[in-house]
Design a protein that fits this description.
two-stranded antiparallel ribbon, calcium, mainly alpha, globular, lipoprotein
Amino acid sequence: MGAQESLPGDGSAPEMHHYYSKFMRECPSGQLSLHEFKKLLGLQGLDPQGDLYIKRVFDIFDLNQDGFIDFLEFIAAINLVIRGKIDQKLKWYFKLYDADGNGCIDKKELLSIFTAIQAINGHTDMSAEEFTSMIFQKIDVNNDGELTLEEFINGVERDEDLMELITKSFDLSNVLKVIQSGRRHSI
């Protein structure tokens, strides 16, 4: 095992220091609230769908559910997005879609998240409805209108096109670029 760190980039001290000083500059209390999170990403004034999505992302990053993202949670989030293995990311995406937390994703949940992501990313080749139907058509093995975590991960890992689509659609690395560079992106 040794002292192998699992931090963003090469996990070097200067890089960690960069993240830490950036985090503390943006967030002197050491606790990032949802409001500050949106401000940091330049995502205030979104429509309700977009707001909902950002809140979901925030809640998932807020590992101890105290309503704030602290530095360790922040680093864990960055780490997952940059370095996470694909099945870790898929589990994370699943958690993001499973709005009611019942362990299954239904069409309504997927549709509302995808609509929200479109509101933020603004680019897509298909409508939220088409996307949702296609996903269920491809991976809802037992056709019960719900996806379990297992169906979701197996289905996406089996289908390269779907994997690429999901990864591209829900890619949070542009969010991280904003955090790293400290500038808001202009679309």
